[in-house]
Write a structure and sequence with these properties.
It is a single chain. By secondary structure, the chain is mainly beta. The protein has one domain. The radius of gyration is 16 Å and the shape is globular. It comes from Streptomyces gibsoniae. This is Lipoprotein.
Length: 82
């Protein structure tokens, strides 16, 4: 008797490790991870509330590949989004 089936398990990689949150570069296309409780370093800002990428390729991870934030927190096209 043969058993067949499909697994619906899909691995989703987190953008940052546990105890960290992602921050984008100001006027750029890069990002970094910062320890919870710490402020973003110079040249980085927090993502707007509700628009934080959590897993690689999730809705907001994909969105922020072509968008970034300026020094005033305004959403703009990422310079390398072409």
């Amino acid at each position: 008797m043969a058993l067949t089936g499909c697994s619906s398990f899909e691995f989703q990689e987190d953008v940052c490790s546990s105890g960290e949150y992602p921050v984008p570069t100001v006027n750029g296309g890069g990002s970094a991870c910062v320890s919870d409780g710490e402020q973003p370093p110079a040249g980085f800002v927090r993502y707007p509330e509700g628009k934080v990428p959590r897993q690689v390729d999730d809705k907001w991870d994909v969105y922020w590949r072509t968008h970034t934030l300026d020094e005033d927190g305004k959403v703009i096209a990422a310079p390398d989004a072409g």
